[in-house]
Amino acid sequence: MIRPRPTLLAAALTAAALSGCALGPDYVRPAEQVGLPAAYTEQAALPTADTPALAGRWWSLFGDPQLDTLVDQALVSSPDARSAAARIEEGDALLRQVNAALLPQVDANAGVSRSRTILPNANPPSGLVRTTDKLGLSTSFELDIWGKLRRASEAARAQALGTRYASETVSLSLAASVTQAYLNLRAIDAQLLAVRDSVSSQARSTQLARIRFDSGYVSQLDVQQAEGALATYTAAQLQLEKSRALAENLIGLLVGQPGLRIAAGDLARLPVPPVPPTGLPSALLEGRPDVRKAETDLIAANAKIGVAKAALFPSITLTGSYGRESRELSDLFSPAAMVWSVGAGLTQPIFEGGRLRAQVDQISAQQKQSLESYRKTVQTAFREVNDALVAVRFNGEAEDAYSTALKAAQSALKLAQARYDSGYSPFLEVLSAQRTANDATVAWVQNRQARLSSSVDLFKALGGGWQASAQLAGGAQQPR
């Protein structure tokens, strides 16, 4: 038996010893290059609290079982959610494909060939027909001396992890969209409740104006004003009913259930989620899936530099085969039919016009772009949290003023109606009070919706809600 030369074995062992190194920079999180303050600007004057635990099902903080059901359905049945799940499967498959290069490739070979060779010295010239049967195994394996394969695996692993974070981003955005659409639906319900009360009240006022006109107590002007106001409120009711149907259609699309119908509810009964703890640390941004996705993109780009640099250095490939070959099928498994080979090959780029170095520069530039994208993502997230904190605070402070205005407008409407019924004031005074009360109701509803929506924006900006030690803040009931 022919044995491999010692030089071949020595080369293989040397290559294996060198395979522990990996070209390219090792990843280090660029925390100091992002430049964020320790706490958010909106709460900079407040003491820094311990980092609160984020709640995954943050929408449950609104205490509405209908909303919980809708969000859960959207996260399962929405086409966006299913597409994101498919991208995770794609990323996992790519990682397995890249990692397969770290293992030897073994192929089975089997074949039969028949050939004819001319024998020129024969008289007369004739041909020799030969049949060859082959059966064996062959393998090839590239030694990862410079870490090219390991860096490629590192990049693929980061990309596969990034698909999961991208899926979480989709889920977070989807839950926020469903919640915002649901709050909009409940705001329409609240306005519908108010305008229906106005229609009912105006219908009674119109009937009273006609009776008083028939009795000669008022002029035709009061009747026409009352009928005009009734028609206006009826048209407003129809517009709100149309808006509600469109809002239902939007929610049905988000949850993957076209034609969905949702029973009426009351925005005022939704509790206001707990206020964020004082001194929220900016480290909470690390939990945002889009920030994590941006970091995995940076990790992948960093690893690809090592892949590009390894292409500048020699690559060593080990090959081998083992099998049997014979001219007769019956002799294929005889001892004399055994064949084998062991080899090693080295490839070193000599001249390629600077293509490989240009590729290194290209990948390095892409890594710089990924770094800037990561920095922008973190800074944008910081701004979104600050904006949401501002909205939460000011919308909460404004609700007391809107509640006071609504109570005053409703009291004025009752007084104006009583004065008109007693004949002390014209009907125009009732119309003005009714319009003011409706405007105050709409303003209160819109501010309550904005207050709840700003909480949704804050949950989304932080990547989740916080665990509050106290009970949920009770929702202030709409003044009646």
UniProtKB/TrEMBL annotation:
Family under the similarity heading: Belongs to the outer membrane factor (OMF) (TC 1.B.17) family.
Main location: membrane
Record carries keyword Phosphoprotein: no
Organism (species): Zoogloea dura
Domain of life assignment: Bacteria
Membrane topology reported for the UniProt record: Lipid-anchor
Name of this protein: Efflux transporter outer membrane subunit
Compartments, record wording: Cell membrane
GO cellular component: plasma membrane
Keywords for the protein's UniProt record, in alphabetical order: Lipoprotein, Membrane, Palmitate, Signal, Transmembrane, Transmembrane beta strand
A Pfam family this chain is assigned to: OEP
Region forming the signal peptide: 1-24
Statement: the UniProt record of this protein carries the keyword Lipoprotein: yes
MF (Gene Ontology): efflux transmembrane transporter activity
